[in-house]
Model the fold of this input.
Amino acid sequence: MDLQTFYKTYLTYLHLDKVGESLSRLEKLIEEKIEEASSDDYLTLLGDSLRMEEIELIKRYSNALTGDNIITMPFNPDENPFLIYNHHLLYIGDGMAVMHEEVIDGILRNFGSVIHLAPLPDGISVSNVTLNNAEYTTTVNLLDYPIIEFYELLLTEDHMNLVAENLDLDLEEYSTRAQIINAISKRLVHKSYIKEKLKMFEDEELARFKDKILRGEVLFTEEEGNWDTFLATGIIMPYLPQAAILPLVLFHFFREEIFN
Done:
């Protein structure tokens, strides 16, 4: 979850009502918080303004990351006033609040600490793309998604139809999105079909893809070359403005079944 989505989702009347803030400032506050959370200078100032108890609270909960790049921790206006009334620790009800990973990371860096990030699987590399902590966490989580959930999350309607067409699926045979995604997922791990399909790919594009697989790379960028055929068939999926991703299930399928 990026910063804009985070603040638009959680900086709502529920939080503002709890801290006695006017709803009339909501849109302006969201803009301000996104700008602040994107600024290393601001996050340094924010960290300098926190009490040691607040720093320890952040450190304690910083390992409880979710797949949405947010951390949930107790909401106590008396113990955490600066974070709460500056609208970076946002009340979600039941005595709990959320903070975004980028804010926490910026605060902890100011104190010589870091969020402990989940490790990548053995043999997997994402070093060809510069990722901030939130993007890294998203990447690690996405890599390990079951294939159907992976495509359900990332495929837009138009892209889904394009992928289905390029994988020779007849959309008239399916009545729901779930059925189409299930068919796409099965087609992408069908060994004999994929081997025949790859014969239609450009040699240069296929060679670059194979080289990346053999190096353990699962992220793909425009700077590396054209990946249109792999995108159009859903083999790799765009998930960041600067990168597309290959899920682990397909990484292992291509490495062990196709390119072995």
